[in-house]
Amino acid sequence: MDFKVSVIVPVYKVRDRILRTLDCLKAQTLKEFEVLFIDDGSPDDSSEFANNYLKDSHVIYKIIKKENGGVSSARNLGIEKAKGEYIQFLDSDDYIDKDMLKDLYNAADKTNSDVVYSGYVFEESNRKEISNNIDSLKNGEFTGKESALGLIYGISHTHIMANLFKRSLLMEKNIRFDENRKFAEDIAFEIKAYAHARKVCCVKKIYSHYVKWGESVTNNVSLNFLDIYYSNIETLDYLKVRIKDKDLEKAMIQSRIPAAIVNIVAAFASKKELREEMYRFIKDQNVRNDLSKYKMYRLEKDRLKYFILSKMILFKPSMIEKYYGKRS
């Protein structure tokens, strides 16, 4: 059977959260799709539960087991094993609406796009909305460069699962997730895919549901947050070598990398046990040089905030500690 879409689902210790994901796959109105469950050395019976739940359904799926290596390694294995024309990445505790695969595939086919992306909602486990990205999206067809710039500058962005990526693009350009990073590897993957794409299509509609389970991101802050900086540095290096586009490089240097530094410092300042690491980080001369290059892409409240915070970090970091320490 020829599959229009391959859905790649990493599985690791989600036995109590995977049911909604399985139900959304059973509900898809597109029938020509496969699901690859990549069991990343899960210590529980998550993949066995998925198998028992779907075995009598119409869903075509495989369960592939591997040693634990993290979500990026699971996704990369899925890319290698996938047979679909397009690939969608779905985490095993999130879900998508029933028409997502059909609508996005039809848009990709109609426009002959390498990537199609759409909107998503960030929500509580009880489905209560926290935020969504619909206002940042613009319906239509764009060049890969336009879409990459929108993502880098944060003027048009979406979650990794709200995309369909043409598998041939990922294979030909060897686009993979960085298995050494815990944070920002999703965005790095998207930037690379968009930058290589000939055409990207945006469908301005929410289909994807990113679910907040348990503690907030703030409570889970750790030294791994440094990956946000290093992942962006590596993405810039990739663009310099593989894409060679000055506008994309400028956007990374003047916007995305400095903003990443601000986010890391704010997160570390909110955790007393990480403040020593915060000061160590902002004393690094490379970090200071990168932060000093921040420029506002356009005058907006959030960009002005980042500009002010970048100067405070450089010249009065104790104020950052005091402000975010009170908020923690």
UniProtKB/TrEMBL annotation:
Q: State the UniProt keywords alphabetically.
A: Glycosyltransferase, Transferase
Domain of life according to the entry: Bacteria
How is this protein named in the record?
Glycosyltransferase
Q: Which residues form the Glycosyltransferase 2-like domain?
A: 6-166
Question: Top enzyme class of this protein?
Answer: transferase
Supply the source organism for this entry. Clostridium chromiireducens
Question: EC number(s) of the enzyme?
Answer: 2.4.-.-
Q: Name one GO molecular function term.
A: glycosyltransferase activity
